[in-house]
Specification:
single chain, alpha+beta, about 20% strand
């Protein structure tokens, strides 16, 4: 087994440090705490079986449909058009 720091693991898998800490706290990744220079340092234990599971999980999350600004922009334009029509109808009533 190989030991890697949280930051190195995050860089390796292109994750945020927050997500790596969250994965360690939930128990998805095995860790080991070592006291170095009076501070607790958390090391992630890299194992082939666990790495495959984590890699698959990361790929599933990345394959989700990305948030599209163009789609959101089109939706908002349609809503603005609806509101303009509604305003015209209200102006005619008054």
């Amino acid at each position: 087994m190989k030991k890697v720091t949280l930051k190195a693991y995050a860089v390796k898998h292109k994750l945020s440090l927050f997500n790596v800490v969250k994965m360690t706290k939930s128990g998805q990744i095995p860790t080991e705490t070592v006291v170095e220079n009076g501070k607790d340092v958390i090391y992630i234990l890299i194992d082939e079986k666990i790495e495959k599971k984590v890699t698959q999980t990361i790929e599933l999350v990345k394959n989700k449909e990305p948030y599209s600004m163009r789609n959101e922009n089109e939706r908002l334009k349609k809503e603005v058009e609806k509101l303009k029509k509604e305003i015209e109808v209200l102006k005619k009533r008054v």
